[in-house]
Each structure stands twice: as structure tokens, then as C-alpha cells.
Design goal:
The protein has 770 residues and is of the alpha+beta class. It contains 19 helices and 29 strands. A hairpin with a 5-residue loop joins strand 27 and strand 28. It is globular, with a radius of gyration of 27 Å.
Length: 770
Amino acid sequence: MALARRATGTRTVGRTLAHDSAALHVQGSAAYVDDMREPEGLLHVYPGFARQGALGAITRFDLAAARAAPGVVAVLTAKDIPGINDCAPVFGGDPILADGRIMFHGQVVFAVVAETRESARRAARLAVVEVTAERPAVTVEDALAMATRDVGEPYQFRRRDPGKAISAAPHRVEESFRIGGQEHFYLEGQVSMAVPEEYGAVTIHCSTQHPSEVQHLVAHMLHVPAAMVTTECRRMGGAFGGKESQAAQWACLAALAAHVTGRPAKCRLDRDEDMIMTGKRHDFRVDYRAGFDAKGRILGVDVDFLARCGHSADLSNAICDRAMFHADNAYFYPAARIATRRLRTNTVSNTAFRGFGGPQGMLFAERMMEAVAIRASADPLDIRKINLYTEKHSVTPYGMKVEDNIALAVIEELEATSDYRARRKEIAAFNARSPVLKKGLSLTPVKFGISFTLTHLNQAGALVHVYTDGSVHLNHGGTEMGQGLYTKVAQVVAEEFGIDASAVRITATTTGTVPNTSATAASSGADLNGMAAKQAAATIRKRLTDFAAKHWKVAKSRIRFADGQVLIGNRSISFGDLARQAHIARISLSSTGYYATPKISWDRARARGRPFFYFAYGAACSEVTVDTLTGEMRVDRVDILHDVGRSLNPALDIGQVEGGFVQGMGWLTTEELVYDAEGRLRTHAPSTYKIPCASDVPADFRVKLFESRGNKEDTIYRSKAVGEPPLMLGISVWTAIFDAVAGLRPGQVPELDAPATPEAILKAVKGMAG
């Protein structure tokens, strides 16, 4: 693997440093919420639900046996909640404890509080919850047929008259296909521990991407001011969006147990219950028409994304919007209608997942490019290249000008380094002589917008202290879920002070230190929190510079911070010595920092504006072999070139690219969510839900960071976000499978849905023979 150049003139930023918890991970001593020392008197909370039924009124609710079970201290119901019985992030409709009626299988109706977790779990099984079952809407087709009330209003972008453009086009394609959802499968499940404090306050230790939201929802539930609730998170064992809004319910249950009993309480879900009770990536049915010319250039697109959202809105409206924002990927559509329906079903509410709707929109664009290539008898890469945004055609369907377009440069470099053209010929020759095994090759780009599309979320705060020995305390609103955010922000602060990153003490994210934070999401963690921390450190550095200039009568321009020393004219003292002398001179060595992303705006009603500060780019070339008798598939080789601007930490960025790709590959190949007609999730354990394992990672896996002069926009050291964009590199595996199947009958578009499981591949293969 190759690394990108570091930021110009930096000593700590741009270096490959280990993740701040790497040694602790290896030793098994990194403390997650469930590893924390348990307070004396800790109780355990276990949620209970109706084992039968997905929709209907609760007709029998008998908790006597559960209350009488050994070790049980209390059994909580909706009646125990003193404030608001809702844990929804935005629009409401997500009761913490269902009251009188359930809307999906697995909806929590009560919670057992007991001396041990095993006692709570066993007691929960003794409760009797009977429901008068009604027919649930489970699929997109159910929601349409039953006319369930959408969780959000239909929405669309429109440019010119796509219907007219498609009708006038010399060639057309029309399809309907399905994109599956995805379970987050974080290694650390949902968990929260609540510790009651004096005067009715409570501290919540929670595995969450959004401590401020947990704080506010717990406060609303307990009917206390937000200042009475403190939420803290040192690290998460993975999240991927599944702990953005979905962590709040379990924090609320732990807090409610602490409120009712006066004792600390912990709520941790089993893997099965976690999968049943928490939302997934949204699955979609995509119906589209497109018109194109003889060369395969798109003339018009008309697409409907029908999203299965679940029983409530959760974050579905923003997710569906982002699917629309990325339905163009890197391509210009002269005329377009891009529309979504946000369909209500009687299933757990789907939620944020890495990419936040963008991957589904992008998969549509890439499938369309494949279909056009088949109809035009052209190489799919050539079709992609002639449809890319250009200087002349640079405005998206939502009115934003693409100003930083490096898609073609990334594609052409990867095309050369992956030896794409020669391998296409080799694969054609292989397929001609191989009757059963068929190879496919695909090179797909990624153009992903960076910023929260809800503009006010694009802000962050930080707090930095310098102690008199020169050590530094750092706190900010971002959360660490394994991505290395804490390490990157520590490098930024160390760079500002000219000290080693090891001198920066990283502390847990807490609402008691930095308030009113946004979720660590939208790939914006380093962009926002890095800038806020830099600003805080710069304030202290300026104070130190002013003091040194005055104290030693030296021009400020002759003062430099580097390598743990401060050069003051011809004098050199340690950073700690300067801090100590500044303290004696009564100079403040503490500062907050604040950052708000500039330039962005979005008028949703008019569907116009600049929702993104910039775009991150990448490309992947994947080669697969498909067994046409069994539908089994193997990924033979993957080449990736990804744009991170000027990397803050190349090793961490490479890790994100590799992990994102594999997670995206899993979404589109092995990870299949299966619900039965009664709305019960049947794939709720590793035995039936298959995430990629080590043997699924390509043996030939070549990853390189794009050599960049840096982000065109003024981001933190001209870096670019890297959390979400790499997931969409995995689309190249799905399109390579599509390519392999398409070769069975030239000119025919395969009917292949996602995920491309062996069953789906075999079905598509058989369809090609018809």
C-alpha cells in the first residue's frame, strides 16, 4: 500500500502514528462501557417485548411472574416515565416503552431491573404480553398496497423535462431493482450505564455517537433540565451510524432504572436482541428510466427511490435526501427527475449507516452505467468517463457547482496502475474458454459530499488546557469509535504547540465539558473538531507568544514552537518552562475553541444551494470470478486509489479505506436481511447473517492514497474526510459480478439485485439463459 504526502511544513500532522488505543486494544485493556468498574449496588436492565406479533393492541400484559422472580428489584413500564416517553431524534414517534400498542416485532414494552443481568434476562421471559395481531406492512410493496402513511413527505429534484428528453433519446433503458439493507454489526453492542447523582442529576456512560442527543432525551424523559444530565463516552467498539440515534433508548432505560431505584443501572443488549430491536441501513426499490445517445452519453434520467423506513421517521428524511444527493455520483444528467418516497412499514425504524443513503443513490448510478454500456455495446469504463462532470457541465441536479472535480484524474491514474485495459482482454479470453467459471472486471468512481445537509449541525467545540509542566489536556465534541479521530485531533493540537503528540492527554467526550455537540457523523469528525481544537490551541499559543515577546523583548516573528522547545530570538526554552513562567505571570493557559463550516447553505423547499463544503473522490477496480453452476463468487483482486487531500495520518486513513471497502463489499454480496411475512427478522445472529470475514478480503488487495496538493477548500491542514466515502468503493465488486453475469448473453441486462448472494447470482444467471 502507498501513502499520500503529509501536509506541507508540518512535523506531527501527516505522520503515521498509531491509534491512541492501539496498545490497549492489543492488551485487551481498553475500557468500553461494559468494562468499566461497576459502582457498588449496580443493577442490570433487560428489555422485554411481545414474542408474537408485529402490529396490534396489547390485550394482555401480565408482569406478576417477572416481578416475583429471584433478584428482581423493579419492572418498568411506560407509566414509570415522569416526563416524555419518546427517544426519537427529530420528529417523535419512538416510545421508550410502548404503551398499549406495538408497531413492530421487537418493540420494547417493559424492562426488568434486577441484581444480576442473568436474573433480569430470565425474569423478562416470564412476562406475558399478548397482542391482537393485525396484518403488518413489511415490504415496500406492502406499504404501497396498504397505503400506509409515509414517515415523510415525498421529495424530488428536477432539472428541465426528463420525460421529454428520454422520449426523444435514440436509446432508452428502463428497470426496477432492489437494494438491500445492512446490519451494523458493531463488535460492542448497545450499552449504557447510569449513575444517579445528588439533587436528581444523573451521569450516563453511553456507547454513543451523539452524547448531546442522549443528554437531551434522558432529560426530557426524567423531566429535568439538560444540565442535570451528563453523558460521557471514551470509546465505542464500532458504531457505523448505528449509535447515532439508536443509542438513546438504552440510555433512557438505564437512566429510568436509576431514577426509580436510586441505584446505578446498566442496560446492555444481547446480540440477538440488538439486531431485532435496532434499525438497519435502509433498503430501497429503485424504479428508473434513462435515455442516452449512440455513444452512451446520458440525455435524461427519471428515478424513484422507494425507501422502506420502518415504523417511524427516525433519520429517514435526511437519509433519503442524501440518497438523492448522490444519485448522480460523479455524472452529469442534462435532464433529471430524482424522487423519493419514505414508506412506513411495521418493522424497526431504519437509521443511519455509514454513507447515510449515499451508497444506495450511488449504486443506482453505477447500475445505470452498466446497463447503458450493455445496450451501447461499449466498455462500462468508457461510458462512465464520457458522462463525468466537466468544466462545461458542472452543476448538480440540486444546483451546486462541482468546483473541485478530480474524478477523471483519479480514474485515469487507477486505470493505468490497475492495468485495466489489458486485464479486460485477458478476462474476455478466459471467459471464452471457461464454460462454468466467468470473470468480471469493473472500475467505479466515488464522489461523496462532505457536510451535514442540515446546515446548523456543521459546528463543533473544543477545550484545551496547558499545564505548567508542558503537558496538554484535550477535550472536544467528537466521539471515538475506532476511526482514529482522537489521535488525529491530538496531532493537530501537538502541531500547534510544536510538541510531541504523546504530550497531549486525550480525554473522554462529555457533555459536561463541551456542550451542544453534533453527532460524530457525516464524515465530518476531523473537519469540525480538528478545526475547533486548533482554534483553542492557537488562542493559547498566541497568549504564550505575546508573553514571551514582552518578557524577553523579542519580536513575535522571532518566536517559534518546535520539537518541544520554544525558540525566542537566540534563546531556547522548553515548552513546559514557557508555560510555567506564563502561569507565574498570570497568563491563562486554557481556552475553548469553536468552528462552523463556511460557505454551505441549503434551501430544501427550493431544492437549491450548496449543501456540501467539498467532495471526496476515489475509485476502485475489482476483479471477480463467478461459478455459474452454484452462484458462488470470489474476489480475486482489488485496486483502490482514494483521495484524502493532505492526510492527517496516512496509516489511519488507509485503515479507513480498507475497512470501508470491505464493509461495502459485504453489504452488496453476503449481508442479507430476511423478514418473514409477520415482520420478524429471521437473520438476527451470525449463524444466519454473514458479514465478511478475513478469508473474504481479497488476497491481492492494493490500496493507495491519491497524491494530492490538498483540499481546495480551507479544511484542517487541507485534509479530506475519510469515514464514509470508502464504503462506496465496494460497489465495484457488485458491478464486477454484474459484468461477469452480463457476459453470458451480450446485449442483455442481468436482473441482479443487491446483495449479490449466491442465490441472487444464480437467479440472474438462469435469467440470462431465458
